[in-house]
What we know:
alpha/beta; nine-stranded mixed beta sheet; globular
Amino acid sequence: MDIALLNLEIQKYINSQLGVDISKLALQKNPFPEVNWATILNQIAAKSKAKDKLPTYFSSENIIYPSKISVEQTSSEKTALYKSKIVNGETLIDLTGGFGVDCFYYSMRIKNVIHCEIDGELSDIVNHNFKQFGIENVMCFSGDSYEILNNYHQKIDWIYIDPSRRNDQKGKVFMLKDCLPNVPELLSFYFSKTDKILIKTAPILDISAGLSELRNVKCIHIVAVDNEVKELLWELNANFIGNTEVKTINIVNEKLETFNFEFNSNLELPHYELPKNYLYEPNNAIMKSGGFDEIGIQYNLGKLHSHSHLYTSENLIEFPGRIFEIKKVFSYSKQEMKTNLENTKANITTRNFPESVEEIRKKWKIKDGGSIYSFFTTDLNNDKIVLLCNKIK
């Protein structure tokens, strides 16, 4: 960590160049020869990345940033805040501390937080930043997290782990056993230190695959921000036996869209109906969860088709996802398309339909955008249909 980066003139320069093309800046002469030019350029790039993702960091003075990649890989403040509401108690140890954003929020809920980071320079940066924030209940340790945890002889309330999805031998990996640390292999060791574990994984991890690698999974939190799934959180409890709960969360403008159900415990089937007055499209957190029958049952909605994952009702209801008023429904045929959509402007969504959005646009000369929302899908009779809608939410 180069403390010279905190020089007032250097900080002013960094702030004046936020958002500027780094490749063009790199060609310029370093106005501060006492500090490595690449280091200054990295501060500009990393802080620019932090503007929307880490607004508290971005708006605070004397914050030092790690590599731009570290900022890209860290939790956003929105997801870190959500995670902090899962935990409680006296002690939490973050075995894969990184830039420390999660620990920043854990420190508001937990009396003593331990930040472990194998990269010594990154650990120093995190420790420095916490001092700027006035955070005094986080201890930063540099080194192998296994050894740090093994040498900690008191019972811990929570262990938090965000395994690296890059393996030196295998490159980018997707199974938990191939990540670092190898959580499935180390679970017994972790449970000897705590009863409660929270694991963060990438959205690409299949839920059934994750459940097959882990045990005592009490709850899976699927967290999306503005309808983009950002992370899966696996809440493990050593004493838990029973059906795993799935919680879907979509954070939109500081508000939470939520939908919960028990994984693989539903024995009912939804009822299927032809399109009525309103159409409902679940948010992407729900789509990731696989709770396609549960959402229809809980909200008493008709499902258009077992594979379409679109729902309908006579009367308007609140719903965790997009809501549309159906203005017209017609069969997908040459004559109907020529009459209703050819050479027009419309938003297109396909669900359980043989043609892609791009193919439909090209075939029927439909421009993107406008106020019309068109859904190309399959109904309960296996007929290909098109729904023209106005967006309500």
